[in-house]
Design brief:
This protein has 256 residues and is of the alpha+beta class. The chain folds into two domains: 168 residues, tt1808, chain A (Alpha-Beta Complex), CATH 3.90.1570; 57 residues. 31% of the residues lie in helices and 22% in strands. The protein contains four helices and eleven strands. It has a six-stranded mixed beta sheet. A hairpin with a 2-residue loop joins strand 7 and strand 8. It is elongated. The termini are far apart.
Length: 256
């Protein structure tokens, strides 16, 4: 099944990007937003295997036109594309639509103040460039009453999506209360089509370690049971031998 795709952009010539600034000195966002971005990208890159190539990135500019500034989402997911070998080459430092031929399928914005334009100028821009799904996560409810709002593209506009599942991508989103990197909070997490949460690399390592420890415990318990069974069998043999000896002493030959 093919995922929803935006209309590809075609250029007769490769645009001149020598004057484009792909990185700037803007400071990073607050600590929660920084962790949330990494949680979303790292869990996809560590645990998701859709059978298709994809790019999951955060704080990378999406350039959609030569003379327009980029939009810089907190996180985006683009399917059926691959990172080029040389990431230092200028045309590979950002997500240029004319290089990849398509917009990302999904963009996630994490609201950290009332000035980001997530529900105004950004939602309009993402619809314009052809993003399929747009997610606004507002943990402090700065700009919306809901923690999470999801939009789906329809006829060039975003309409609210009533659920958190994206069957064409084989992904879903969920709110998870738990501890990530030592901080307990409510986090936005990915899940698979069966609503199993996608784990980070660290979580996978801990899970594997726990499984190994459980297997070792089961093996030790099985060994203990075997030893106890052997002790019981040995005890029964000793009892039988003693009984046979008493019978012989009484002149009774025990039956074989």
């Amino acid at each position: 099944m093919t995922a929803m795709r935006s209309e590809a952009l075609y250029f007769v010539e490769e645009p001149d990007i020598s004057g484009i600034i792909t990185e700037d000195d803007e400071p990073v966002d607050n600590m929660f937003s920084e962790k949330q971005r990494r949680l979303l990208t790292e869990s996809l890159n560590s645990s998701w295997n859709p059978g298709r190539s994809f790019i999951a990135a955060s704080d990378v500019g999406i350039f959609y036109a030569i003379n327009q500034p980029p939009v810089v989402p907190d996180m985006f997911l683009s399917m059926d594309v691959k990172l080029p070998e040389d990431l230092w080459e200028k045309k590979h430092r950002s997500y240029f639509l004319w290089e990849y031929g398509k917009a990302p399928e999904m963009v996630v914005e994490i609201v950290s103040n009332t000035e980001g334009g997530e529900n105004s100028r950004k939602i309009q821009k993402y619809a314009q460039i052809g993003v399929c799904y747009y997610v606004i996560f507002d943990p402090q409810r700065y700009i919306q009453n809901d923690l999470l709002r999801i939009y789906q593209s329809h006829a060039g506009q975003f309409i609210p999506k009533i659920d958190c599942q994206f069957p064409l991508l084989g992904l879903g989103l969920m709110l998870w209360e738990g501890t990530y990197e030592g901080k307990h909070d409510r986090w936005l997490r990915w899940c698979d089509s069966h609503k199993n949460m996608l784990l980070t690399g660290f979580e996978r390592a801990v899970s594997a370690e726990n499984r190994a420890e459980e297997a070792e415990n089961r093996a030790e318990e099985a060994e203990d049971r075997a030893e106890k069974a052997e002790e019981i069998a040995a005890s029964e043999r000793r009892r039988a031998e003693k009984l046979a000896q008493r019978l012989k002493e009484s002149g009774i030959e025990p039956e074989e």
